[in-house]
Design brief:
The structure is a homoheptamer of 252-residue chains. Chain A is 36% helix and 22% strand. Chain A is α+β, with helices and mostly antiparallel strands. The first copy, chain A, has a single domain, classed as 4-Layer Sandwich (Glutamine Phosphoribosylpyrophosphate, subunit 1, domain 1), CATH 3.60.20. In chain A, a hairpin with a 2-residue loop joins strand 1 (39-44) and strand 2 (47-52). Chain A is globular, with a radius of gyration of 18 Å. Chain A starts with a helix and ends in a 13-residue tail after the last helix. Chain B binds chain C through residues 6, 9-10, 13-23, 116, 119-120, 122-124, 126-130, 152, 157-166, 176, 179-180, 183, and chain C through 1, 3, 7-8, 11-13, 24-25, 28-35, 57-62, 64-66, 83-86, 88-89, 92, 125, 129-135.
């Protein structure tokens, strides 16, 4: 990024425009997303896949606690990248919103409606003073009424994007390249999981270990979110030759 | 733009006047509009045309999600340029306003009333502290009671402008020049669509691809907003020789 | 204007006094008025005249939309100069105020009362923090109960001035000089219109074109605001030899 | 005034103390008072006199609109100097206060009570953040219950002063000197008017013209505020040889 | 006072601590007290005495209006020094408080309770943002239930001090020295008045004039506040040889 | 830490992003945690162990008052590190929350729910203006319904982490290393206490003294928080050879 | 203290963290405590002792008014050091809190509960913007239900400390050293008073005078706060040879 004194004048205090029409605080929040580990989402005809890498601060950390994939409703999952505490706040908001909609309208919220409620909120933090933008990106995956799989990204500016397959977080470019190469042949959720792990492997220096990873699927037919057990993740990595030899697969 | 230390004194913090009576934050918000892709609106005797170009961040992005044209009511459409998240907030406001007016007065809001409600709100963000201006422009098109086609622009200062044909966003000058050359002969909505695509082509380096584009019409007789299918857009581009040869017209 | 570092210390943030007792933000707001096109108001025994020049950003702009003269009530008109979005906000306030007074007291608001309500509001924005002054001037013209024509100016400090004839906006000095030379002989509203157009012509480099112009009268007898058709304006300009030869008088 | 960088540190943002215990924003507001034209008040056994000079921005300005003397209640008048819009706000406050007291207690407010209500408000603006001080001085004249004439000044710090005779505004020193020389012989209201005009003349470069001037008296016996007609002012000036020969005394 | 750039860092904006634990805004407010004229209070077995000097801005000022001694309740008086408008605000608070206590508890507020209510309020202005400290000191004198004379000082930090005899304001040191020399022999209120005038004389360059002075006593037996007539003050000054020969003792 | 002028631009005022996506105020709050003494938590099959070191400011300080371990509910304990006053505020919040949940749902709050309520609050202080982050870390230990021992850490960003064993505070790295070496063999709560004291010893320069230390256990079977007596702590230290010879073990 | 430009960046405006995790405004508030005179508290088996030194600004000041020891409830006393006005505000809070608890729960508040209510409030002022920390320390002494003497200190960060004996304020180190030397032999309240005076003497340059001093005891058996008469203080000082020969022991 460019770093001169001219720029400094526009990136402090509240979020304001620079002379060339940029919002630096939003761009810096995007850098916060890149500082985290990667997360990917893939839409297949059979359902949506979410997968994410995480970093353990010590071997004594409970791997499950590095949760980067969250169930937001029976038919909705969210993967996160970037500033973890900010992401948790948005995931909470997603859950509450899903519940409220269900209570109010008697039916499950659809993926796009939920996404836009979240991005409305994110945008507000970039325009009204007294707060900083959210330093995280969410991948919101769901299966809507009628069995349609959907996959959205929310970025720190508050813009929603819809994707067939997308990566966010650290080394995003490498993962997205892998997704673009491999997406065409996808048919099954299992295909999606394999491609997701390959994309995450592209963001890591060596092979992957299952300890910090998490993955989930939302089946198109049942419209049900299901998180993979860590052993299942290990089996997938093993099957596709992505397992780091030195990893402790016998971890709790 | 001029860029000296004198200027810097007046473009930070809240929106205040410079010694020569300018509001720099508003002018920078206009730069944000120019950073986006172009959108055009054209008023014809038969109805109003909106068309906009968009950028896909990857071939895996769902093209429909780069929506730059939105239906605000049966008889009202909005095209946007500039900071996407800001634009969405204003589009939401337009929709809610249209609904409220209909409920309150039992009839559809007319295009000018709606436009001015939006620009009132935009202006407020340029005068009262604690927030930045909106970094986007809207083209608000409608067919009012009696079949009159109308076309308005809202700019970041909160000023409404009415147009026969107008372009906003990146390379606006090139597109507006094309509109001025071609406007006189317009009779039909189809004429309008052709001129709109030609104007957008003038803002792009080469030919256009239908993937990132969107277009809609509001027919004067039926007063009904209709978005064009991407295939229809492709057909138009093809017919008028504006299609980029390398484009993947068989996309999804 | 003087431009040294001494001055800079007092013209930022909220509106505060400089060591010599000036309010720079208010003075800069006056500069914003001068950046706009001119407007003039003339009081004659037969009624009040308002006229204003406007700039079209393109030949495709709908000339009527550059409205610089607004009806505030049956007997009240407002011409504006300066930052257009700010002016619209004050015009809205004038309209609402006129309605409220009529509802509350069962009779039309008189011109001076309305003017002072507006200037009270303008003053507040120059003293209380969290906002900038209004960057516009209004000419408020009316015929009060008993047929008395009145003409007021509001300036960015929130001071009301009453005039026989006055010009505001760009090249104000040239227009005011013309008004001072020509005011003595005025008897009819038509005399007023001619002088108004002459004053505006003094602010323009060459002759005038009717496209960006607007004018209105408030007759003393009927106490009724009437806007001139663009063709009437063209006829006036033609009659008085003020018409720019190159202008497209056949404009819609 | 002294003008060094040491001082600058204490006169920005909210009103705070300088190391030597001064409030610069209040002192600058006093400078704003001196930037205006002068006003004088004189207490005589027969009643109180107010007179003020004003500047016309053009011969087309309605002289009455440069009103620097206002009736606040039947028995109360206010003359103002300094920032006109600020002064109007305080005059409004005085009027409302007088009405409220009358409604609440069934009798006219006395001059001192009213003055202190105004100065309380002025003081608040010098201590609490978020606003600047008032840049004006008021002379509040009244005849209280029992026929006692009173004359008060409010200054920008919010301090009330009572006077036998006082001048405020531009060239205040020259006017006050004249008042001190001439006060001893005063018996009648007419004596007061003459001295008032002489004091104003001392602040002007040459003789006076009645156009920008205003004057009023509050008779001790009737306790009634009466503004002088401009022709009466002209007659007074003429009688006392204060009339500028070049003045247009036949002005409407 | 020391005046270096190190210090400047801690005395702006809200009231905060300097590295050596000082509150500069409070210290500067104490300087504001010293900028005013002096006031003294003296407690004698027979009652409390208050006396204060004032400055007339012109011989035409009504001397009574430079009131530096105020009755707060039948048994309570307040003398002030420093920023006059701030002092008035606190005196008002004292009066209201005395009334409220009487209404609520059916008996007169005692001097210490009243003093502490005032200092609580003063302290708040030194700790909570958005306002500056009060630039004045009060001497609160009273005779409490049982005939006990009390004398308190409030300083700009919000600390109450109780005194046998104290001076505040300009040249405070000289006055306090005189009080310390002369206090021991005091028996009567008249003794107190003499010492008070001597202390004030020590703060003035030459002899005193009665015009700007004020004095009051609160008798221990009757617990009643009584202000001295200006003629009584003159008589006292004359009797004790403190009268300035050039003073106009026949002043109204 | 790096310390250049580039960095300074982003770590003042409210918490905002630096160009590389970091939140400096949060990172500095983490430094505040490291300035304190260490605390450790260890999860064993038999229950959870908390232990913490403290510093006595003088031998006359009551050692119990340096409480770094708090009971939050019958089944919940909290150890703290960092800015003590901030930590107390969060511990109070934990206690109130545990009570509220019990009242509302009729059952004890589980450890994870409580932890996330705390971290939600911590996050808010890092995003919304007007406050600084919390400069402390908490270890929240509990035994949930069904006898499951849980151990969480809250960090100044508002992120919750779950651990088998963890150290926070000064010399955290040394303590965590010891935990990683010794964790595998743990079976009993007593094993946990020994490892906890060894980890704390690794953060201290020499041997430990029981005076500033505190420890507690939450038994898995009884789900009951129990604080160790200082004599028990001394016995443990003695038994494991961690006792500082010079310590006053006969301390009250 | 260190004083470089690096530090200055973190100690202004609201209270924020420095890069090494310090809160400078809190540290400066501790300097404010050291600027005041000393106070000591001592816990003995027979009760708690409080003693404090004060400075008289003049021999005419009423010594009792320099009150540094306050009764908060029958069984509770508070000694203060540092910024006097801040301390008074906290003492008021302590008194109100003690009353409220008694009303609400029908029994006397215990010393620790009261202390923590105060420190909660102090902490809030160090974290939430818009105010500065309290520049004072309190010693809160009480005898709780069952006759247990307790002694707490509150510091400007909002941390409570419990002590056997402690000194705060100017020359705290010298006083604390004396307390540590002499504490072991203490049995009676009289022993405590002697040690307290010795500790205060260690903070003063020469011997002590009773005029500015205050002392109080809270007897363990009766749980009753009793302030010492100044003559009792003098007798103690005399008895222990701490009396300054030049002191005026016959002072009222």
């Amino acid at each position: 990024m460019m770093q001169n004194s001219q720029q400094q004048a526009y990136d402090r205090g509240i979020t304001i425009f620079s002379p060339d029409g940029r919002l630096y605080q939003v761009e810096y929040a995007r850098e916060a997303v890149k500082r985290g580990t990667a997360a990917v989402g893939i839409r297949t005809p059979e359902g949506v896949v979410l997968a994410a890498d995480g970093r353990l601060r010590s071997e004594l950390q409970v791997a499950e606690s590095v949760e980067k994939i969250h169930k937001a409703d029976d038919h909705l999952g969210v993967a996160t990248a970037g500033h973890a505490a900010d992401a948790r706040r948005l995931v909470d908001m997603a859950r509450r919103r899903a519940q409220v909609e269900k209570l109010r309208y008697g039916e499950a919220v659809d993926t796009e409606t939920l996404t836009k409620a979240i991005t409305d909120n994110i945008q507000e933090f970039t325009q009204t003073g007294g707060a900083r933008p959210f330093g995280c990106a969410l991948l919101i995956a769901g299966v809507d009424d009628g069995g349609e799989p959907r996959l959205f990204e929310t970025d720190p500016s508050g813009t929603p994007y819809e994707w067939k397959a997308v990566a966010v977080g650290g080394n995003q470019r490498e993962a997205q390249d892998r997704l673009e190469e491999g997406y065409d042949d996808l048919q099954t959720v299992d295909d999606g999981l394999r491609l997701a792990f390959e994309a995450l492997a592209a963001t890591a220096d060596g092979d992957l270990t299952p300890e910090g990873m998490s993955a989930a699927t939302i089946d198109a037919e049942t419209a049900t979110f299901e998180a993979l057990e860590r052993s299942e993740i290990g089996a997938h990595l093993d099957e596709h030759g992505l397992l780091d030899e030195g990893s402790e697969s016998d971890e709790e």
